[in-house]
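Hello,

I think I submitted the 9WN job twice by accident. Can you confirm which output corresponds to this input? Input:
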Amino acid sequence: MPQPAREKPAEVNPLAAGVLRRNSLESWTRPAPSLYPHQWSWDSAFIALGLAHLDNRRAAQELETLFASQWSTGKLPHVIFNPEAPPQSYFPDAERWGSAALSSDAPSSPHTSGLCQPPVHAIAVLRIWESAQVKNKERIELAREFLRDSYPRLLAWHLYLTTARDPEGSGLVTIYHPWESGTDNSPRWDEALEAVEVGEELPPYTRYDLQHVADPSHRPSDEEYDRYLWLLETLKRARYDEAAIYESHPFLVKDVLFSAILIAANEALLEIADAVEAPDEERALVEGWIERGRESLDEHWDEDLRLCLDYDLRAGKPARVRTVAGFAPLIAGGLSPKRLEDLLQTLDSPAFAGNPRLAFPLPPSTSPEEAGFHPRSYWRGPVWPVTNWLLWWSLLRAGEQERAGKMRRDALAQVAEGGFAEYFEPFTGEPLGSPDQSWTAAVSLDFLAAGGS
Ligand code: 9WN
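Support: Only one job matched these inputs. Its output is below.
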């Protein structure tokens, strides 16, 4: 049963700001106080979006700190390790990744992981720019400087994703690990992950994540962790070299959600390119990425499920499972009226936000109609505020103001009732995972700043 309302949506703002303040270190923000003590890539992008409404300069700093650890290939690493984090607080740690020791492309300090995460960054940079417009002249000038510095970083990042991560020129990004998707244990990855045979040489390890959660069964299982850690070993064997990974790595999947976020981020990059008066050739390059990406998502559309599907390159087949990632074309934008209609029908159906058992009509991470659905297990069913944000933002861009407004109200009602949890049980609204998750607070601030009833 839903808990009695704790706070009214209007009171969410100062509470969200408080979460971000408490999780903040000097120039970056921990995703959560104890479970995640380092800087995470897409968390920081969402955090910057929220901070843009509180403190524009600090929002810019959040991303500058991340950009300072960009690999020479253009990759923005998924974790930047905090040397001050308490020992044995998160695993795999910097030592286990060994990025700088194995690859001259990695920065030597601070240490980073060898993976990346969905590229929300250009969208956040643009939000910082937009929110500076309503402030004073000095703020606008600072934001313009930030925009100028960020543009080449973002271009290099997107270039990396459209080349090293798409050597086929397919328009879709290949991920090497479920952690790159940001939706770690989603049933999207079950088949591809099951095909990964864990070598006996897997070095022993201790999971510290289980110490920080009320119920360890909500986190990914030990079997999943063995495979996650084995994939890490195979990446290390390839010394994080992209061509070598493509040859031998056992997990290569075209991720439609990651790719759709890249398309939306490329649209943001075009606006940034205009603002910094970037050369025409660069604009044409980005326009080409957007076009190719959308065409490719169209090729991965499943007419029966009325969703877009990831594609397992190793097995040579799509992952036929209904998860929130299937709404990728909505996030990518530029839809035909028919495709938009299809996606909205799926969204409203009992397979997602129209399920009659839901506490709030918000899309569960995995469809309750799927065999792999679990209402309390991480990305296997719970509702995640960041995916609410992505869909809300996409609905607005698609001109679906009314639906977007409703989703925004429901998402705010959920945090008003349950707090800034990492994720929520879809049928009861119970807050799960880390209770003070930064990106939940950040997207709530962005929802509030958008206004409306
Ligand atoms: C692994 C930090 C991150 C998010 C991911 C979420 C979770 C890490 C973990 O936490 O992943 O990267 O240890 O489970 O799945 O989306 O960025 O909040």
